[in-house]
Every structure is written in structure tokens, then in C-alpha cells.
Amino acid sequence: xxxxxxxxxxxxxxxxxxxxxxxxxxxxxxxxxxxxxxxxxxxxxxxxxxxxxxxxxxxxxxxxxxxxxxxxxxxxxxxxxxxxxxxxxxxxxxxxxxxxxxxxxxxxxxxxxxxxxxxxxxxxxxxxxxxxxxxxxxxxxxxxxxxxxxxxxxxxxxxxxxxxxxxxxxxxxxxxxxxxxxxxxxxxxxxxxxxxxxxxxxxxxxxxxxxxxxxxxxxxxxxxxxxxxxxxxxxxxxxxxx
Length: 242
What we know:
47% helix; Rossmann fold; 2 domains; alpha/beta; DNA polymerase, domain 1
């Protein structure tokens, strides 16, 4: 059985090679999109925006980083903010988000095991619109930090998804240790249409997980799954044979 799987694996690699995996973070590794939503609602409510709901967040603003989300909501409210104002709101939102995390870190079932399995075969990275300190805190607290070679956060990339800048920066950072690494050899794991768009714009393949949006909205990905808990390496290889 193992020998047969090895032959299949070699054939897929001849057709197209998977050499690195890049995870989005919120809604993919940690089940915290509603925590972010509540933190946004608290900040925006203090600014007089009383219409921002979970439906708005998941339907319109999901996938934007903190700056992008706050700026977009305020603009849609009829008062486009200046960058210094957004920066202050981002800092306030971070305080509220950490208060939410104080009640517990909700990792998705099966994700720690998947990360460990993939890390044994491929270099892993994170590319997220979350803040660096948020990502580091959660990874350290959950024991997952050692599995990731590269973390690209909103602190390093100031233009959010669907722009591919974050994924291209992650590729360059990975390339330093896995050179030469091509975009077409990277698999991105995403939960939002904007993230799928960013991955493809960077020239990467994309696995989407329907944790935040229905599967029908994620059809732009190369593969869509309901949960990452049951995903095996063998499930990913056909993506690179196309």
C-alpha cells in the first residue's frame, strides 16, 4: 500500500510539484472570525456605526485586514477616514480582540494534526491580515509556532487581500530557505473569496475550507473542503497535476 502511494506521489510530482504550503490564519487555523467581528462592532459602535452586523462582516468585509475593514466600513458609512484615524481604531480593536481571546483560543478541530503532518513534508508559512502579535500569541499558546518558517502579517504588508502582495512577500521569504521556489509550487489554504483571488493572482494553487462562507462561494478555489480535519497529503497532490 505504501509503495503504491509512493508511485502515485512521484507521478503527481512529475506533473506538478507541491513544495510549500501557506496558510491563511483567521477562519483557517483559529476559529476566531466571530471574535474579530465582535471587536470590530465594539470599536465601530463607539464611533457611531450601529448597523455593522455579522451578516455584513461575513458577507462583505471578510478577508480584509483590520485597516482595510475599518476603512471600508467607515467609508460605506459616508465618512472616509484618514490613515491616522484608522491606525488608532486598529489599536483599540486589538485590545478588544485580546479580551475576547482571554476566554479561550478556539482552534479548528484536526488543524493542529494537519499542520504537524504537512510540516513533516513541506515548509509551512502563514500569510494573514491579522497583526503579528495576535498570530504569534495564538501559535505559541497552541504549540504550533515551531511548524511555521515564515509569518507574513498585516504589520509587514500594508495592502490587503485580494491584492497578492502578501502571498508574493511570503513566497520571497520562503524562497530564501527553499530556493528556488516557484509560485506554482505553493498551495494556499484560505476561507474567503478575497483570499482565493489573492492566491491565484500570485500564481499559486488554492485549497478553500468552508468555515466562514458556504462552499458555493468558494468555487474559485482549486479544491473546496468542508473541514481541514480529514485532509491528507494525498488529497492535495491532484491539484498540482492539472
